[in-house]
Write a structure and sequence with these properties.
single chain; alpha/beta; Rossmann fold; 2 domains; five-stranded parallel beta sheet; four-stranded antiparallel beta sheet
Amino acid sequence: MAEYICVLNKDSIIIKPAKKTPILLRMIVLLFAMVCGVYICSVCLKQISTNSKIKIQDIQVIERPSPDVDHENLQISSVHYPNPETFTRAECVHNPVRYFAILSMQRSGSGWFETLLNSHVNVSSNGEIFSVLERRINISSITETLDKVYNLDWFTSASKNECSAAVGFKWMLNQDIWYYKQNGKKEQHQPLEKQNGKKEEHQPLEKQNGKYNCGKVAFSVVSFLFDGYQLVLIRGVMKHHKEIADYFNHRGVSAIFLFRRNLLRRMVSVLANSYDRHAKLLNGTHKSHVHSTEEAETLAKYKPMINSTLLISDLKEAEITATKALEYFNSTRHIVLYYEDLIKNPTKLKDVQAFLGLPVMDLTSRQVKIHKGSLADKVVVPLKSFDNHTTPRGQYKW
């Protein structure tokens, strides 16, 4: 141990021992080191326990969704990379494409809805392609037509060609096509038109302006003979629903159901459009859709006559068609839309774009609504046709 030597003078020397380190200071340093060690250990243990919990949660089994959950919210749309035969997709060859089909009924807003979709820069909705008989005469012709559409080999004014991100068409659920043959030669084909009158199994044809219009009928036969003519009924999507649903599931086609809540307004629109097909109120031209208020007001002047004897049964028939369609295609990836909801809530269009996996854009249409205002002012109902059993009530309101 070192010693301190103090020299006072020449004759005296005092030797002092060195000072000892205080024990208290040593204890403080030791205690501080212990506290730091305990803190560090606790932090490390907490991190290890957190990681363990996360791993357990990652492998936790999630319950199956109940049957009431909408399928469209659970399923992801399939993407495709078609290789068309009629052109090359060029720089868009690696861009995915989604397939869709709009399933609706006449005068339910499908034409307006399709113009909205086609205003999107990446959408090609090709219209009512199955209005032509040869494309739907049997399931083989139907699938052949579908293959062309989804392979991007179908060309219309709506085709975006190379850079389509979604491609489809619209299909009318209640469209039955008749065509007429005499001596084996096809003369013409046109949609079945329903007229007010008593239901008969074989109602005679009436020739108007060189064309034959079939009355309101309920045929289940495929064909029959009348006055030397062979009348053939060709049904499409509802007739071959099983094969078409299988095709949709196999090819990854998403179904967009578009219906109308107010079936009375739909009926008025159907009757008015059928009348204008022959009357041609717009300068001798028939238009199912218009782009100006003047044209809309001209068409709205016609008030169709409603036969209340058949009114409820006709409305029920439309309801049954929609219900059956949803049942037939329940296994497909689908979404259900209503015309009135699209009118009142523009955000529904964003839901449609999300359903198709599209970048959201503002969709627009030039079409103008024809029948506005109170429905009672748009129709004529003979007073003698009303009784306690036929007056619309409940969900069918004027």
